[in-house]
């Protein structure tokens, strides 16, 4: 479990995260949702240590990550895999070399073991034929899968994905979502995903944290989210015209149910 306790973070005079407390549940798919600019990426970067918080604590289990030095954080960092927005693959390296890179940097494996691990991870994301291709030669969805395979190569305990669906069509988005969810269950990973895609919330979200203007506005399960009475959350999840109609129909049904019940 990752615990966020009264996190504050700003840049100069601008406060981006005001006072965020939330929990990322162990072995689950945790989704951080919210409009553009609500602070999702900054929060994620604080969690992995790319940004330092101004106040508050981030705890990995009972370890206080915030209070640790870089050296003390190293074992936790090695358990973190990250899929960056836009995949962030190395353009001059083949798919295989992209996956080799973290193994060369952070493992003591022999070449044969490394190759085996690269193959395993590429097989797992259904990319058997892409080993020798360069990122420019593959589609956006395939790039995401390479990014996921690279995040998995060191066998992480925690997987962070910043907008894994950005730039993908709805069908490919669903394939990527399902893949991340399956991997979370299969390898018992604690996964944290930033998204503003409501399809992801309903398909794969076990635990949801809703961010609004740098505050945690709501936190709960995907079952509870549809019935939440939080106005701001409702405005976010029922943002499209179609869903607004659905919301009105739902309210109508609910008031009918009440009348019939009384
Ligand atoms: N390095 C930085 N320096 C100054 N301000 C920053 C920095 N990084 C982010 N911000 C500001 O923090 C706020 C939150 O940004 P963040 O990228 O976390 O939003 P987000 O919720 O991830 O949005 P999106 O859905 O568009 O990715 C924004 O107003 C942004 O301008
Ligand atoms: Mg972002």
UniProtKB/TrEMBL annotation:
Record keywords: ATP-binding, Nucleotide-binding, Transport
InterPro entries from the UniProt entry: AAA+_ATPase, ABC_transporter-like_ATP-bd, ABC_transporter-like_CS, P-loop_NTPase
GO molecular function: ATP binding
Boundaries of every ABC transporter domain copy: 2-238
Signal peptide range: none
Pfam families: ABC_tran
PANTHER family: INTERMEMBRANE PHOSPHOLIPID TRANSPORT SYSTEM ATP-BINDING PROTEIN MLAF, PROTEIN TRIGALACTOSYLDIACYLGLYCEROL 3, CHLOROPLASTIC
Name listed for the protein in its UniProt record: ABC transporter ATP-binding protein
């Amino acid at each position: 479990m990752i615990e966020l306790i009264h996190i504050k973070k700003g840049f100069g005079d601008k406060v981006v995260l005001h006072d965020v407390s939330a929990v990322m549940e162990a072995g689950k798919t945790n989704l951080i949702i919210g409009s553009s600019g609500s602070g999702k990426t900054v929060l994620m970067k604080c969690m992995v240590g790319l940004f330092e918080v101004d106040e508050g604590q981030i705890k990995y289990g009972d370890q206080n990550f915030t209070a640790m030095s870089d050296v003390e954080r190293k074992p936790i960092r090695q358990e973190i895999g990250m899929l960056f927005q836009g995949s962030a693959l190395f353009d001059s390296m083949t798919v295989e070399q992209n996956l080799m890179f973290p193994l060369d940097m952070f493992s003591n494996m022999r070449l044969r073991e490394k190759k085996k691990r690269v193959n395993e991870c590429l097989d797992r994301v259904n990319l058997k034929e892409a080993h020798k291709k360069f990122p420019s030669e593959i589609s956006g969805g395939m790039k995401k899968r390479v990014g996921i395979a690279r995040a998995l190569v060191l066998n992480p305990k925690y997987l962070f994905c910043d907008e894994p669906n950005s730039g993908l069509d709805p069908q490919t988005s669903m394939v990527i979502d399902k893949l991340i969810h399956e991997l979370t269950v299969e390898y018992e990973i604690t996964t944290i995903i930033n998204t503003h895609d409501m399809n992801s919330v309903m398909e794969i979200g076990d635990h949801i944290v809703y961010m609004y203007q740098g505050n945690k506005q709501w936190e709960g399960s995907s079952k509870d989210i549809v019935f939440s009475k939080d106005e701001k959350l409702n405005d976010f999840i029922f943002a499209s015209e179609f869903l607004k109609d659905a919301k009105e129909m739902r309210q109508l049904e609910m008031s009918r149910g009440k009348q019939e019940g009384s």
